[in-house]
Amino acid sequence: MSDSAHSMATKLIHAGEPQPRVNRAVTMPIFQTSTYLYEGETDYHDVKYARLNNSPNHTVLHGKLAAISGAEAALVTASGMAAISTTLLSLLSHGDHLIAIDCLYGGTQTFVTKNLPRFGIEHTLVETSNVDSWSKALRPGSKVLYVEAMTNPTLRVPDLKRAVAFARAHNLVTLIDSTFAPPGLFQPHGLGFDLVLHSATKYLNGHDDLTAGVVTGTSERVAVVKQWLDHLGGALDPHACFLLQRGMKTLSVRLRAQCESAMKIATFLEGHPKVSYVYYPGLKSHPQHKLAAGLYDAFGGMISFELHGGAKAADEFMRRAELPLLAVSLGGVDSLMIRPAAGVHVNVDPKDRDAAGISDGLIRLSVGLEAADDMIADMAQALLDLAH
Ligand SMILES: *Cc1c(COP(=O)(O)O)cnc(C)c1O
Questions:
Q1: Catalytic residue chosen out of the listed positions 11, 143, 156, 202
Q2: Where are the domains of the chain?
Q3: Residue 51 annotated to the active site
Q4: Ligand 1 centroid to 165 CA: how many Å?
Q5: What is the pLDDT of residue 388?
Q6: For site-directed labelling of 212, which of 182, 232, 256, 386 has its Cα 20 to 30 A away?
Q7: Contact present, 369 and 262 (Cβ < 8 Å)
Q8: b/e 260-272 (16+ beta carbons within 10 angstroms → b)
Q9: 228 Cα–ligand 1 center, Å
Q10: 233-281: per-residue pLDDT in tens?
Q11: Would you state the CATH architecture of domain 251-383?
């Protein structure tokens, strides 16, 4: 049923599902057991045990994730950070060097710059939008290139084709965090990326009710990550596997609606006199609009924007808006909004925030499944008579 000729929407429903169905159940049941009867397995990593990521719930989910990612194999983890940290630890040893873009997800940035150096793993952060400058970062120990499909929160788009070519020319293993551009929008393996990482907490699950991560790649590469995950212990619980599998079935309809709404909302915001700048890769004004159009099938559900009145106006706007909830995270059915400089990036040095283009007044909006017209009406009333 995971026929590669099927479209994404069909694969999301059928790929990986057990054949025949378990006790004829249409929906995959939850195997809420930590351990399984021993059947003569000879390798520790093959023993059936929930921490070893091989329950029936894991197996089904891995099949579905591999099919929708165009990959040979997939692995789920307890969070996006578990996928990222476990994969990096599985690839890099003392003395190795990592090249990563300078606009990383906050948790990844801290892991690379503060945690990995303790194990003798060094790094150089390179300019996200300037692939020509990356060769200066190369060292004899350079082993991995780490990029993101779209950066947070200013939605820059790195030249991902050139990134792969650069890595191939220098024998680097290529990793991409594609959380902001999930399957249905973008297939990094199609461009040649070796390992693709996701926070499944976001679009893949889409309901803001669990944390999970995903790693996809060749069977050989994913098996190495699995051995590390087995020991680091970041296994996804079978109940969360069940919820993620359920959430994923609607990914393509959710994404289509979120991308359509985001385009309408971004266009509304760009035309509003109180709004000074809108960051959305679907807008012609976005500096990498053409690049994004060549990479993605649509432009995602994330919008960042600035108001003329700066941080004060942003806070007032966020108080007045009634539909988007004020919370971190993204990609779910509820629209969520934050001011990164006051929230997720509050611990980042203001100079580094400036370099990353995160002004004090920047608002990040994750567009959910509310009707676009209702969202626009709500934002219009929140912008009306703004004092700042
Ligand atoms: C949320 C997020 C992560 C971390 O995922 P968790 O599931 O919260 O651990 C990593 N990368 C990106 C781009 C994210 O948005």
A1: 202
A2: 3-248, 251-383
A3: yes
A4: 26
A5: 67
A6: 256
A7: no
A8: ebbbebbebbbeb
A9: 19
A10: 999 999 999 999 999 999 999 999 999 999 999 999 999 999 999 999 9
A11: Alpha-Beta Complex (3.90)
